[in-house]
Structures are given as structure tokens and as C-alpha cells.
Design a protein that fits this description.
The protein folds into three domains: 18-177, Beta Polymerase, domain 2 (2-Layer Sandwich); 184-263, Hydrophobic Seed Protein; 267-458, cca-adding enzyme, domain 2. It is 49% helix and 9% strand. It is built from 24 helices and ten strands. It has helices at residues 2-10, 28-31, 40-51, 61-67, 83-89, 142-148, 171-176, 186-192, 195-207, 213-216, 219-222, 231-242, 247-256, 265-271, 277-292, 299-306, 308-320, 325-344, 348-360, 371-376, 381-393, 399-410, 413-422, 446-451, and strands spanning 24-26, 56-59, 76-79, 93-96, 102-107, 110-116, 156-159, 164-167, 179-180, 210-211. The protein is elongated and about 75 Å long. The structure holds adenosine-5'-triphosphate and magnesium ion. Magnesium ion binds at residues 60-61, 74, 76. Residues 56-181 form the Poly A polymerase head domain.
């Protein structure tokens, strides 16, 4: 009311007195969204809800992407129907979530998240001692729901039926100016949910948007609050960050915002180890290239890459202390995985994929007898081989070994026998050879692994989850 009055008196459109209780409504000519970028299932969900008498809109990242002319990778729907009411309208619908209840509506493999408009009364919501909201299932109006969203560009609603965009917080303007602006008072919003700081970094890097100064200012000071967030949530957000197609830019931005330090042990390791920088850069470039090419990326491969140089360091130390090569590698892997699980909640499957990839590495050194054939049959051979190529491309080991394995992998039986007969044996049998000499130029095989030219999913484990 008061804000409205001030605006009337001043006749101003100043953002600080923006009226956020009623939306700016934009028709197709004003927003320019191409309806062909919408998924049929998103329209199916909104129209089913609307036919049952509810309001329903595409919301969040999908509207942002539609306005940017990008095909959204998934669609979230917001409605005034309660989760129970939504569930009743669809054959395969499941209520999930504790902190925020949402409904997953499935059509075949396609999953849509349907959320009921949230209320703004967070005062009574249960919080932890730092002010982080623990549970919040109070429903509200669309205007209240918009206030609760993180950024202005993520708080717009699109109704496929009349092709209108409802914009409560100047999101369209911010999209045009390529500005990332948090809704409300930044400190308060980060306190309620510190993960939003990671989201600032992800969206700024992924969309190449500028962080509005007031949105960015508190992050360096408030970064430690992320320590209180359950590890599984941080992990989910980190995975989104690493799989955004701009992984390297995101990690650099995390560092710039002071978010990496003491926050996730993983990032300390990744961003502050000079030896691993080349390897990690190649691994992340390869991941980004795969995402852009629409290929799957396995989290196990990704995390195995990010932590490889930490494993290498410990592996070397254990061997220096007298352990045999293979047990030393297992000990190193245990150490690294243990130190990461507490904060990062590495899921068991991911941890075991990482271990598989790492422990395959010394086996690539054995190129006599039946060993190479046996390794080829390993369930995760492809991931281990791609990983080997990254090690070659980064100069950690001689490119020759990668070339040999490419020839062996691609060759017929006669070629394979030939290769085994002429294999260069490592100087110390079974030892991990760490040649640090000048790297020979990029060659077929080695370069491919580093740029994502390798076609099969890493390890053929069927993708991201
Ligand atoms: P992406 O395209 O990467 O999925 P997105 O914006 O859709 O981006 P999601 O994590 O899928 O991101 O979240 C969907 C929407 O839910 C967001 O656009 C935002 O409106 C809201 N949202 C998600 N997380 C938060 C949060 N921590 N605080 C406030 N709003 C959030
Ligand atoms: Mg999304």
C-alpha cells in the first residue's frame, strides 16, 4: 500500500518501489516466446489442471529459457491446486519431498514437477539456529509464490493457453539487461537458504549474466553458512553446477565469489592444486562439450576426474611408505572418498564408480598375456579408458600408452595379438609410470578423450543418475 502510494506521488518506476503484488502482463508480441519450444507434456499438465478449474502455469527456469529463446531442458509447473488435488488428476503422479512437498507427474520417461503456490509466512516456519528454513508447506497466492522464488528471472509464469507471461519482479527487464538479481533483501534470502549463493554462481556463469551488486555483495561474508546445509542438498546443487555445460566457468566464479574455500573439501582440492589444474581443466572441458552435444555425463567419471590428483598424491605417498602398487591405490582411494563423503554426500553408486575408474588405471600398464583382453571386458572399461586418455592428454603419463590402447580397443583380433607382442613394457612391472617429460603433440586418440569426442557415455552406465 505504502509503496503504491509512494510510486503514485513520485510517479516513478524505481525498482525499489516496484509493486510486486500485481504482475506486468505481457502478450506474445511483447515477450516473443516461440510456443514450439514448449514440451507437449508441459501443455498437457497445464491444460489438465486448467480444465479441472485450477490455475496452472509453466514457471521458473523454463520461462527464463523460453524468453532467452533456448529450449528448456525441463518444465516446472506452478498451480493453485494442492498436491493431493494434483495427484488425483494424473495417472502417474507422486507426492515427494519433506521440506517442500511437490508432485512428480510422469509421462513415460518425462518427469514434470508440479508445485503448489507457496505462501510468504516464513515467520512461523521451523528454522535451524542460523535461520535456515527447515520445512515450509504453507500455500499462498501466485504473488506470494513469486516473492518466494530466488531470482527475478526465475519468477515468471507462462500460461500456454493464452500465451501470456506474468512478471511480478521485473524479470523480463533483467533478462534483457542480462542481470542476475535476487528477489527481496539479499542477506535475508541467503540466510533462509544458503544454497541460493551457489545458485547465483551457477546462473551467472551458465547464462553469462552480470550479478547485480547488491545480490553479489553479501556472498563472500555469508559463504560459511553453506556448512549448515545438509550435504545431500549441497551435492545436488554442485552436480547441477558441474553439469550446467559451463562447469569450468562455474568453478572459476565460485572461486571469485569466495565460495570455494573451506566450503567443500572437493573445491579446495580442485582449485588449489597446481598439478591437477591441467587435468581438471581437460576433464571439465570434456564434460561441457558432452553436455553441449546432448550426450550423457556420468557423475562418477566427473568426480573421479576432479579428485584424481588428490588420489595420485596419496598413492605416491603410500608407495613411498612401502605399500605395493595396488593396495596403495586402494588406500589412497579410501582416504579421498572418506574425506569427501562427509560434506559432499557422495552417493554409494558414484563412489563405487569412482573407485572402479581409479583402480583400473594401473591395469592399463599391463600389456602382456591375457591382461589387456581381460581389462577390455571390464564393465567400466570405457570410463577407465576415457580416463586414461585424459591422463595422457594432460601430460601426466606418456601419450604412447593411450595410443596403444586406442589401437587395441579399435583393432581386430590379429592387430590385438600384434600389439601385445610389440608392447612397450613399463620399466618397473606393475608400477604407475609417471613420466613428466615434455608431452608430444596431440594425437588421434588422446585428444579425443579430452574434448568429448569419445562417443559412448563414460562407462556406459546410462547417464547422469
Ligand atoms: P535449470 O534450468 O538449471 O533447471 P531452474 O531455474 O529451473 O534452472 P531449478 O533448480 O530447477 O532451477 O528450480 C526451479 C525453480 O524453482 C527456479 O527457477 C526458482 O524459481 C525456484 N527455486 C529453486 N530453488 C530455489 C531456492 N533455493 N530458493 C528459491 N527459489 C528456488
Ligand atoms: Mg529446472
Amino acid at each position: 500500500m505504502i509503496k503504491k502510494l509512494i510510486r503514485k506521488i513520485l510517479g516513478t518506476k524505481d525498482k525499489s518501489v516496484r509493486d510486486t503484488s500485481t504482475p506486468v502482463v505481457l502478450g506474445p508480441d511483447a515477450h516473443g516466446i516461440d510456443p514450439r519450444l514448449l514440451s507437449n507434456n508441459a501443455v498437457r499438465v497445464t491444460s489438465t489442471l486448467q480444465e479441472a478449474g485450477f490455475e496452472a502455469f509453466v514457471v521458473g527456469g523454463a520461462v527464463r529459457d523460453l524468453l532467452l529463446g533456448v529450449k528448456p531442458k525441463d518444465f516446472d509447473i506452478a498451480t493453485n491446486a494442492t498436491p493431493e488435488q494434483v495427484k488425483r488428476l494424473f495417472r502417474r503422479a507422486f507426492i515427494i519431498g519433506k521440506r517442500f512437498q511437490i508432485v512428480h507427474v510422469m509421462f513415460g520417461q518425462d518427469l514434470l514437477e508440479v508445485t503448489t503456490f507457496r505462501g510468504t509466512t516464513l515467520d512461523n516456519a521451523p528454522k535451524d539456529e542460523h535461520g535456515r528454513v527447515l520445512r515450509d508447506n504453507t500455500f499462498g497466492s501466485q504473488a506470494e509464490d513469486a516473492v518466494r522464488r530466488d531470482f527475478t528471472i526465475n519468477a515468471m509464469y507462462y500460461n500456454p493457453a493464452n500465451e501470456q507471461v506474468l512478471d511480478y519482479h521485473g524479470g523480463v527487464e533483467d533478462i534483457r539487461a542480462r542481470t542476475l538479481r535476487i528477489i527481496g533483501q539479499p542477506e535475508a534470502r541467503y540466510r533462509e537458504d544458503p544454497v541460493r549463493m551457489l545458485r547465483v554462481v551457477r546462473f551467472a556463469a551458465k547464462l553469462k549474466f552480470t550479478i547485480e551488486p547488491a545480490t553479489g555483495a553479501p556472498i563472500a561474508i555469508m559463504a560459511p553458512l553453506i556448512n549448515n546445509v545438509p550435504a545431500a542438498r549441497v551435492f545436488d546443487e554442485m552436480l547441477k553446477l558441474l553439469m550446467s555445460g559451463q562447469a569450468l566457468a562455474c568453478l572459476q566464479q565460485l572461486r571469485k565469489e569466495g565460495l570455494h574455500h573451506g566450503l567443500l573439501p572437493l573445491l579446495d582440492v580442485v582449485l588449489e592444486q597446481p598439478l591437477g589444474v591441467k587435468f581438471v581443466t581437460l576433464a571439465l572441458d570434456s564434460t561441457d562439450a558432452r553436455i553441449h552435444a546432448g550426450k550423457t555425463v556420468s557423475p562418477g567419471f566427473l568426480f573421479a576426474s576432479l579428485l584424481w590428483h588428490q588420489v595420485l598424491e596419496k598413492w605416491t605417498a603410500y608407495r613411498a611408505a612401502g605399500e605395493q602398487t595396488i593396495p596403495a591405490l586402494h588406500l589412497a582411494a579410501d582416504d579421498v572418498l572418506d574425506s569427501q563423503t562427509e560434506k559432499l554426500a557422495l552417493q554409494r553408486k558414484i563412489g563405487s564408480d569412482m573407485r572402479d575408474i581409479w583402480s583400473m588405471q594401473p591395469r592399463f600398464e599391463r600389456r602382456t598375456g591375457k591382461s589387456p583382453h581381460k581389462l577390455l571386458e571390464h564393465l567400466r572399461f570405457r570410463a577407465g579408458y576415457d580416463f586414461l586418455l585424459l591422463r595422457c592428454a594432460s601430460g601426466e603419463i606418456d601419450a604412447e600408452i593411450g595410443e596403444w590402447w586406442t589401437a587395441f580397443y579399435e583393432g581386430d583380433e590379429a592387430t590385438r595379438e600384434d600389439l601385445i607382442a610389440t608392447a612397450n613394457q613399463p620399466a618397473a612391472a606393475g608400477g604407475a609410470k609417471r613420466k613428466r617429460g615434455p608431452r608430444r603433440g596431440p594425437r588421434k586418440g588422446t585428444g579425443d578423450g579430452a574434448t568429448g569426442g569419445v562417443d559412448a557415455g563414460h562407462g556406459g552406465d546410462g547417464g547422469a543418475d
